[in-house]
Amino acid sequence: MLPSEDDAVAVCAPGARTEFELLAAAARDAFGLDVHPAVRYVRQRDDNPHRDSMVWRFAADTNDLGVPITLLEAPSPEPDSSRATSADTFTFTAHTLGMQDSTCLLVTGQPFVPYQNFDALRTLALPFGIQVETVGFGIDRYDGLGELDQQHPAKLLQEVRSTIRAARALLERIEAGERMATDPRR
Prior knowledge:
Layout: H1 6-12, H2 19-31, H3 36-44, E1 54-58, E2 69-73, H4 86-97, E3 103-109, H5 113-128, E4 131-137, H6 153-182
Parallel strand pairs: 3-4
Antiparallel strand pairs: 1-2
Helix pairs in contact: 4-5, 5-6
């Protein structure tokens, strides 16, 4: 995780060292899952979370919702320099869970909805035929988690920039598909 995330991690998942541990803490809190075995396993791995992947499945009778739940950690395509992006995670999830022609409800924080939706359309809807709906919970859910919380203008501007880039990437992917579909050599 990034040093800029330390304040929020300390509030949400004290002691978490990886994004998977943060995800596990959220799943524990939201769904009543016993995530201790998964966290123990993650902590036994080599200390290279960007290279590793993790898939941990919970049966329907192990949680408050009564549905099967899967926690995933996607590997980075460039593990020496960066963690997996949203697109990497979406693609890994679609392949791992066999989501072809299915539906996906993506839940994120409100400032991230446009970016996440464009990226999900590009990486899930177009290649896998997945119907995507993206919703966001209110900023009150994570406001004040750290000194530089998500309402800070620099963070919001960064999300606007990411949204523009994701929209451009989606448009380029659609245009490339249209060119291929109308290519007489095909």
